[in-house]
Design a protein that fits this description.
It is a single chain. By secondary structure, this protein is mainly alpha-helical. Helix content is 81%, strand content 0%. Helix 1 runs antiparallel to helix 2. The two termini are 25 Å apart.
Length: 97
């Protein structure tokens, strides 16, 4: 993502959007497999699947708001905002595990 911050062409924005969407769909498809295969008790499994599903929608709303607010920024600034948001998401997932 960081490399897209320094490219000002519109095609780069479309490519970055495609890559983020592809990554999101992959995570939404694969993550439940890891939770189910981890061998948690039924109660823990249900709790973790519920948290995952809720976080997907909360994340979509938050990122939608962040992207809408970053629209006023230049393309470099918008990519920096998205990159920082991705780092924050990594921190949140580390805290929960």
């Amino acid at each position: 993502m960081a490399m897209f911050a320094f490219i000002s062409q519109t095609w780069a924005m479309y490519l970055a959007t495609f890559l983020v969407g592809l990554g999101s769909i992959t995570l939404m498809t694969v993550n439940p497999t890891f939770i189910v295969a981890a061998g948690y008790s039924d109660e823990q499994q249900a709790l973790r699947l519920t948290r995952m599903n809720q976080s997907i929608f909360v994340g979509a709303v938050v990122m939608g708001a962040v992207l809408a607010l970053s629209e006023a920024l230049c393309s470099h600034g918008a990519f920096v905002v998205v990159g920082i948001s991705a780092l924050l998401a990594l921190l949140v997932t580390r805290i929960d595990s």
